[in-house]
Every structure is written in C-alpha cells, then in structure tokens.
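From the shared-data thread, chain only:
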Amino acid sequence: MTGPENIMARWSRMKRESGTIVEPNGSSFRPKPNAAEAGDLKEAAPPTDSPAATAFDLASLPPLQSITAGTDIRSFLASTVPVELTRAALRRAWVTDPAIRDFIGIAENQWDFNDPTAMPGFGPLRAGDVPGLAGLGKTEQAGAAPAEGQAAAEVDEMDHARAAEYALLAALMSHSPDADMIEQLARLGGDATELGAAHAALGVAAASIDPERVEREYFDLFVGLGRGELFPYASYYLTGYLHGRPLARIREALKQIGLDRNERQSEPEDHIAVLFEVMAGLAAGRIAAPEGTDRSIFENHLKPWAARFFSDLEHAESATFYKSVGSLGRIFMEIETEAFSLST
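Structure, as tokens:
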C-alpha cells in the first residue's frame, strides 16, 4: 500500500506522461527529436550565404560625425552591425534632429497647464519653433545695430582678452581641433600667472598630438559608442538629466537678448560651447545687450556648474590633450567668478 501522492510527485508523473503518445491499439511511443533538438550542429547550422554569416565591414558605414537629421542610417541597423555602433548612430541622428533633440516633456509643476503655448512642443506650430542656435542666430545683426536708445560701449583690453579666452574654449569644446588649429595652439606661450601656465601647458600638449588622435579622444570624451565619458550640458550637471529646466531657462535668457535658434546647430543651448560663444560675443561687443548681461548669464547659467565640468575633464580617463583644456577652463572660470564677485 502506498501513501497519498504529494503535489510534486503528481506534477512529475504528469510531465512524463505528457510526452508519451498512445496509439489506438494501446501501444505507446515517444517522438524522436529533430536534428536541431538533438544537437546535430552540422544539419542545424545556418547556410554560409545567410546574412548572419556575412562578415561586418566597418568601412561600408559612413562616419558617425557625418550623420545629420536627414541621413539614412538603415545601414547601421543591419544585424551584423555591433549593437553599440547601432546605438551610437541612433543617438547621433536623434541629437541632430531638432524635433527630437529640443523636445521637453510635460513635468508636474513645471509649466502653466492653463496656457498651451507655455509648453514647448504642445502649442501651435510656428515657423520659428524648430530652429537651433547656429552662429549665435542673430548675433551679427544685433552686433551691427545696437539696441535702440543704447550707445555702443567701447570694449576695453580686458574684455578683448576675456572674449578671446571664451572663443578659444568654445572652439575646443564644439569640435576636435584640426591640423591648422593644432599648429596654432602649439605656438601658445605663457607667463608666470596661473592662467599663463595653463596656456603654456596647452601649447605643449598640442605640440605632442596629431589630428587623428585628438579626434578619437574627443569622440571618446563627448560622443562615445552609446555615450561619452562626459556630458558638457548645464541640464545634466544641475539636474542629472538632459534637456531639463536649465535648458529652458537658458533659452529664455538668450531670447531676451535677441538670439534666435537655427536648425543647423546640432547642440542645445546649454552645451558649454554654445554658452561660451555667447559670452565671447558679449565680452567683445558683437552682441548688443544691456549692461551686465554677461554677468547675469555667467552667474545664472555658468557659475553653478562650468568649473566642476572642467575639473571633471581635467581628470577624465579618456583625456590626454583635453586634460590641458580642462585645466585652462577651470582656471578661467575661477578667475571669472572672482572678478564678477569683486565688481559692483
């Protein structure tokens, strides 16, 4: 006499019985597995002319840096392309498309929900809604004709030096330097000041690098396969996310001084290079704006995070040449912070 069958024993028995086929004459048999199930790799292997067996050729793909919003990236979606490269191509296509890049989703307590036009992307479409900031938008027009009722202020030697510093860092952060720029940087000299020493170090770094190496370094730092080591955006450093409220505040501040967006610019306005271009234009007098605008933009949109970003760049694992750029940027931000704190 056997004891009652427990639930696990009953489950095991039923599983075994489910694999047995009973014939009408009462006999039973188990079906034989096919070649693939039996592990017959020779019969189950895919044919050699199948897409999975095709070797991946990196040269058949366009450079990631050449991808724009209108680029056909279907070649990156093939099954033979490494998934990291596919993601990098998609990311590049998305960040160069203003309709995707500039979208700011609805966030609780962030926008006035009683006014549909207060939420970017949700109000009526206008001709100027899809622009991106290229060449500072209306910078040339604004610089050529000062605001009504405002005299064009003379730019002193100190502001010329500040403008040059901002312009240099903006160029180095917007793209990797080419051979001509590297040659010019290699001739940089310095003096006994901390900023002068940073200039000299940048010159030494430029003299020991070539365009191909620095292009790869720039890619690893700020683009990457999937993501770069650093994100040079105010939104990321202040909130931990891209395209956040800091970006909306910067857009509003630039709009107030007549800087419109242009779709040719691939980066949002909270990118460090865009903000530094604006500061260079203000310091040099190319952008007509009320007195103290440069201070306001620096205090509100650069001081809270820019020095920290350059410090991170200074110590980034992927950085060699850009370590010296990080040092120069950090020192310059410290000087600007002190100068604005002393001015009244």
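Strands lie at 21-22, 28-29.
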